[in-house]
Amino acid sequence: MRHAQLPIVVVGGGAAGLATALAMAPAPVRLLCRAHDGRGSASALAQGGIAAALDPRDSAAAHAADTLIAGAQHNDVAMVQWLAAGAPAAIAWLQAQGVVFDRDAQGCLQLGREGGHSAARIVHAGGDASGAALVHALRARVQEAAHVQWRGGVDVDGLLLREGCVAGVRTRDERGRHERIEASTVVLATGGIGALYARTSNPPGADGAGLALGLAAGAAARDLEFVQFHPTALDVPGHCLPLITEALRGAGARLHDGGGHALMAGVHPLGDLAPRDVVARRVAAEQAAGGRVWLDATGVDGDWARRFPTVLAACCAHGFDPRRVALPVTPAAHFHMGGLATDADGRTSVPGLYAVGEVACNGVHGANRLASNSLLEGVLGGRRLGELLANTPVPAPGSGPLRVVERGESLPPAQLAALHALLWQAAGPVREARALRDAWRVCAALAEAGWQARLAKALLRAMRLRRHSLGAHWRQDRGCPR
Ligand SMILES: Cc1cc2nc3c(=O)[nH]c(=O)nc-3n(C[C@H](O)[C@H](O)[C@H](O)COP(=O)(O)OP(=O)(O)OC[C@H]3O[C@@H](n4cnc5c(N)ncnc54)[C@H](O)[C@@H]3O)c2cc1C
């Protein structure tokens, strides 16, 4: 067992952080999070659900094969096999934690089908409110757990290092007060980077702060160039846009241009259910040509309030009733396949620092994530890491001085908005060398002004270095057809 003097600190209250903290019992954990109430995570917004080969006609091997195809074979094969094999147990564990998944009339788990999956294997809850159900249940378990101390309302903006090892965090509360928390181990479960883009399906807090912190501490990164763009966010003014789940197209909704012509006709054999990057590029091309794209879901039958309550509520809030009118849609930054490089257990290259969930990159998603594999990765990866840390003896803390590695100041709001627009333009669904170079130069010039510029510079560097298209990274200039 580990030394009990210092707690383990987990940063992040999404699926990955919650699963990690729960699995660490009985080792003491401090779970630090920006939100007081568990909101603000991408996990809570997840709509489609969680992939698991549960149908007797399905198999973990088929789930793994689909994951590798989606990832353009850039994936770590062992990690993919681990993910697919562990999925049924992850669903059972979530049920044991109180997540109630939707069932059919016979009482069996309902299995949905999404783009890229060769079988119906998406387990969902509350129709399209899967993530909210998951976070609600896991957060309730965390609040009951005697070994976890939850602290909301804090931004972790620094890492403490002693003798080259991570030895804690520095927090900043809503009044700007700093506090140092020493820890035996620090786990970053801080989510993705979608909110660095001008158009995103992610919450505002998915700003890459954890990734920036890890990089500032010298942790190695991997696959930073691979960002997934979802083709159908609601095209309304704003930065963080409501997502229109792919399941709607699975249920018969169709994309068309301003003239009413089928958008995906002749583009891909799977039409509207082509891979996300293919559809996203087609929508982006229509927009670049000055057009607008619409998703017509008026033909989708059934009980919207039960099947798609999240989409229905979000669209109605913006004045669109999807049962009656076509919805304007746009691509939006959705998921980061890259992140802090970790091994299978979540170790980064910096001793004492671990990463799990979307902020981490263990290679499982390759160059493009298969739909509904990320909550699964967060849950499985979090449990694996939590159990490991609970059972790993740690040496007594060193006696050297503590050093703070800071993420640094944020860009002023106007410059931050300009950076979001720049990334959308240069590092979006379609990329080319000159725009990437120019954007990198802008970020390099801004690097001292704010941490987001330094992070964007690192992302752009990776995008410039990969000169050919692969998965979600599409190089218009040197790209090869998919
Ligand atoms: C709209 C939408 C729909 C999706 N649908 C699905 C789906 O159906 N199935 C699926 O598998 N995936 C889906 N995804 C992707 C999936 O939700 C995410 O990849 C996954 O939830 C990430 O989990 P996480 O725990 O790593 O990060 P998050 O859930 O984003 O949690 C990160 C946490 O870290 C906190 N945090 C961040 N930085 C700091 C800091 N500096 N200090 C303190 N706290 C910090 C945040 O407040 C948050 O609590 C969807 C994503 C979105 C946005």
TrEMBL record:
The keyword Oxidoreductase applies. One of its GO terms (molecular function) is L-aspartate oxidase activity. Pathway: Cofactor biosynthesis; NAD(+) biosynthesis; iminoaspartate from L-aspartate (oxidase route): step 1/1. It comes from the Bacteria. Pfam families: FAD_binding_2. GO terms for biological process: 'de novo' NAD+ biosynthetic process from L-aspartate. Keywords: FAD, Flavoprotein, Oxidoreductase, Pyridine nucleotide biosynthesis. Its cofactor is FAD. Its EC number is 1.4.3.16. InterPro entries: FAD-dep_OxRdtase_2_FAD-bd, FAD/NAD-bd_sf, Fum_R/Succ_DH_flav-like_C_sf, NadB, Succ_DH/fumarate_Rdtase_cat_sf. Belongs to the FAD-dependent oxidoreductase 2 family. NadB subfamily. PANTHER family: L-ASPARTATE OXIDASE, L-ASPARTATE OXIDASE, CHLOROPLASTIC. This is L-aspartate oxidase.
